[in-house]
What does this fold into?
Amino acid sequence: MVSKNDIKRIKQLEQKKYRQREGLFVAEGPKVVGDLLRCGYQPTILFATSEWNDKSAFFDTKHSGNQLRTEIITNEELQKLSFLQHPQQVLAVFPIPQQSFPEPKGLCLALDGVQDPGNLGTIIRIADWFGIKNIYCSTDSADAWNPKVIQATMGSIARVNIYYCDLSIILCQTTLPVYGTLLDGNDLYQEELSTEGIIVMGNEGNGISQPIRKLINKKLLIPSYSHDDTAESLNVAIATAITCAEFRRRK
It folds into this structure.
């Protein structure tokens, strides 16, 4: 049964200050919750309708630890807990992973002030698709554990590591090439690309900030093929997908 305290506690996790204080985040829906479970994430609380429970092997001994609270609830009760307009059978609360900060290697993404939760979630999903395991975010980027971000990842948050840091330190210390998409860059499709490197993507309105721009040693441009008046710029998530696709195509 869902109590008023349950509703209050879960609704509070929509706010960053409560997520940080509790060290918890909320995931919803069979796809997102299922991917997190399959990747070894252990929830502290799980609410599900009987429909989800009948389809899932979650209640096997693998996920029946003493510290886990599980509840079979009605659709009406799930509606009271959910952040979604149309709740999807299951809602779970997970601990935010505490990860050691790794030195960048392979192909990585760095996000400089990406603030829209939908964009961040989509970029995490893109990274997962192209086999990019690590994303380094500036401290003014959107919080990856925001419920809107979690849902936009469609489960990819389970397979991609997110780190918040001072990007200037990371980019100054790395021995990898640092790529960035800029209007004065070289054509992405003509430029030589490495199999390793850090790809920097900037803020939705202002692009890559000046301090970070100075640390980019490989400037790239996604060319426009329109001969008429065209869009002023690309959405940051779309630009990320185009850039990552070209890096992987070269590989």
About this structure: The longest strand covers residues 178-187. The chain has two domains: 4-95, 107-250. The chain is about 35% helix and 20% strand. The two ends are 52 Å apart (CA to CA).
